[in-house]
Amino acid sequence: MNVPKHVAIIMDGNGRWATNQGKKRSEGHLEGSKTLEKLALHAIDMGVEILSVYAFSTDNFKRDFEEVNYLMNLIVKYFNTKFEKINKKGIKVVVSGRKSNLRTDVLKAIEDIEEKTKNNTKGILNICFNYGGQEEIIDGAIKLAKDINNGLDITNFKREDFYKYLYHDLPPIDLLIRTGGEQRVSNFMLYQMSYSEFYFTNTYFPDFDKSEFNKALFMYENRDRRFGGIVDKESK
Ligand code: FPP
User: Ligand 1 within 6 A of 48 CB?
Assistant: First the structure.
């Protein structure tokens, strides 16, 4: 099977999943976090090397204080106590996003999970938190500008050279999945998805289980990736 090396998921539909069942939106996020844990373990079993997920965008701060606070508390709880299976599986957890505006306990939980899992080699779970794709490119451009000021020669600077200026130096996304019925990218990993295959599903994220994930993998296997050329070859 031709398994995508890097899969990214826009985990949408938690709120609607909850509302449809007469539950509070926060219960949708809680169910979504359980789904995420199961999917991360499953993705690695299927041969995926990197799973990137959109857990909180820079624009999600526009939501009610109660919901923002719930998501912050949820991530702290998961990082501190619930990611043991992820760690045992040998998955390295990295967090991408801006560190400004985050509470100190959230920053500490991020630091701890990254430290605890840093030597794991079975796969990578990249959690995008307080994340924006344009912001990542701007932050990378600022780092590059500093290097140029310090004498970096950019005469032969290529698009693949920019990856190391992003939050984490991860390969391009092969397959982007968006649950919840919308068909847009919502400022997610813009630099990394230039040649991604897209898979959209109406399924709300809490219901996006292993078999739903496998459907996306099967679809990917049948796509003909040409990267702007006429034969199937890697872009990076
Ligand atoms: C979008 O659904 C989802 C989010 C803004 C949050 C996603 C977060 C999780 C799945 C939990 C992450 C947990 C950890 C441990 C990283 P929505 O609320 O916009 O749904 P709606 O479109 O139906 O309202």
Answer: no
